[in-house]
Amino acid sequence: MEKLPDHIAAALLPWYEANARPLPWRQDVTPYRVWVSEIMLQQTRIEAARGYFDRFMAELPTVGALAAAEEERVLKLWEGLGYYSRARNLHKAAKIIVERYGGALPADESALRALPGVGDYTAGAVASIAFGLPAPAVDGNVLRVCARLTCCPDSIGDGKVKSAFRDQLREQYPAGRCGAFTSALMELGETVCLPGTPDCPACPLAAMCAAHAAGRETDWPVMPVKRPRRVQPRTVFILEHAGHIALVKRPDKGLLAGLWELPNVEGELDEAEALCLADAWGCAPEGLASCGRAVHIFTHLEWHMVGWRVRCAAAPERFLWTDGPQRETACPLPSAFRYYKAQL
Ligand code: SF4
Q1: Residue 332 in this model has a pLDDT that exceeds 90
Q2: Which of 49, 135, 145, 282 fits 124 for a cystine, CB–CB 3.0-4.6 Å?
């Protein structure tokens, strides 16, 4: 395994002090705020997460408040961020922290890693940023920096590469500056050592970077081979009865587990088939209109959706018939349905 250059921290920390962005979770740093922000930032861009973070903190400012909240309220605060298992795990972990640690996150990397939804990366981020421990947090951005510094020939999707860089970085953590070192590595990957256009003239590590010395920065990192996403056609229904819209709850396990959704089925139904299905559900359909097509992309799956709006004379109990305020307060709808939700 290629060895990282020595003295990364000495070159990186002065740059970070001068260039750190004033992000909401970097102000008033507490273990709870760092933890929630790191969970939110998994699979979510910083700009998208900002508003959610502020709203989450205003409504649930402590571990205790999160633990005591209803799950639906937590999911509602997460509505639109996607990957809802993150919110569920956050909620479960908060209850454990209250029961086991009296409401204070444990200042220990292994104990943090044992919490639901907390992996090596999040445990390292919280341990170093919130508690000042020498615990690396190696995400895709940090991996890219490390791979370029060393011209690493192996795929960054290989777990061994990640753990080798984590072990090497751990040895370089500067006493008293652990949190800043973690944040600085992330910041460099997010703002300078960008995937397609690294800004090497502005990089504090340029003098020690092997990819830069070779003038081939974008040849690294070696990326894992991506499997193509499966495309699944679906038909989505806006069933309307006396000003109320039908929702249904998804199963407790699997994709979008336990969330409310507009009734939908696999396959693309034409007008006659859609009417027939609404009738079979007991909705006594009186008329139907197209409400357009939409695509939603999950990690390994694409939903290609066609929508039908159906006027119903009956309101069968298999659905929850909701008004606007009810949908806003109690029934979070995943962003997969954003296009149709805008038409409710
Ligand atoms: S010199 Fe360029 S490629 Fe190397 S770490 Fe800095 S930004 Fe990335």
Answers
A1: no
A2: 135
